[in-house]
Amino acid sequence: MQEKTSHSEPLQPNMELFNAISDETRLKILMILARSEFTVNELKEILDIHQSNASRHLSKLSSCGLLKDRREGTKAFYGLSDDLYMSDSILDMIRKAWTQLGDCDIVHSKVEGMLTQRRNNYSPKFHKLDEAGGSLKAQISLFSKLMVPYEHAIDIGCGEGGDLSFMLAHRCEKVTAVDIQKATIKGLTKIAKDKGVNNIRPLEADMTKIPLPDACADLVLMSQVLHHAPSPGEALQEAIRLLKPDGILALLDLAQHNEEELRETHGHIWLGFDNKRIEFLLQDLPCKIIDMEIVPSEESEHKKLPAICFIVQKKA
Fold first, then answer.
1. C-alpha distances in Å from residue 225, one per residue of 48, 65, 202, 253
2. Is 179 in the same domain as 200?
3. Does some domain include residue 129?
4. What is the pTM of this model?
């Protein structure tokens, strides 16, 4: 494969860009937005600066093509631009500059605190499999590609009831059902005991920091969880880490959509994904895409969104 050069990158070095990233506060903003989207008010709280200063810094970064924004009612959410993500040399330079920030650990701690607060606020609203994007057709499409037995499967973001984990338990020697919610894991433990299912291990963990060893699973399943990830790239990196060589990552999520209300009603961080964004997030990981499908929404009285399905294999 031909290596990328700076000439093929959307963002090119220039004085305006260097001026924008030479400011310590703006570097911190970029570091924060690499973790998730945030509003001006949220950035103001994290950085302990006045709102007008936060807006001024965001305007400077946006003018250089480093940020993108989207509106949700009266709120504006900011994140790193696609052009920045695709400009490896610029992004690498910015990441190296972050390591020179003396209080980056404090900033990271504040960011994690705010994201935890978000999860706690939204957790009662997390959708179940029969709600938005929970198309049975999409699940059948996914599992039709997985009809082989596995030794160890990991269901990341198993959700209340652990439906898919129990489906996997019929074909796998053991299943680890991972979810960040303590109540979900407690409930799943009780269900497994009541059903007499002994090969499911419920595990409370963040999807980016799962306390399992490298290369421990033949199959990792991520069904409708990636749109809840503050950092989808880190979540996918963790999934690939857990796979044995030639192991399979089965990813099912919402296709890109414009249903903004799902952020409030269901706690979604991302409004689905298109295939190019998933391909971009996977491109530097030791894996290859072996199948991809967009599953149209079903015709029903309840509105359902189209889903996107990726089957990814870890390189040997």
1. 31, 29, 16, 7
2. yes
3. no
4. 0.69
pLDDT digits (tens, 9 = 90+) for 236-245: 999 999 999 9
- Does 87 lie in the same domain as 160? no
Cα(27)–Cα(149) distance, integer angstroms:
48
Between the alpha carbon of residue 15 and those of residues 21, 67, 265, the distances in Å are 10, 17, 43
Kind of pairing, strands 150-156 and 217-223? parallel
Does residue 145 share a domain with residue 79?
Answer: no
Q: Confidence class of residue 1 from pLDDT cuts 50, 70 and 90?
A: very low
Please say whether the beta carbons of 176 and 154 come within 8 A: yes
Nearest-angstrom CA–CA distance, 302 and 129: 13
Identify the CA nearest to 200 among candidates 181, 187, 215, 182: 187
pLDDT in tens, 247-281: 999 999 988 887 877 777 777 888 889 888 899 88
3-state secondary structure of 201: strand
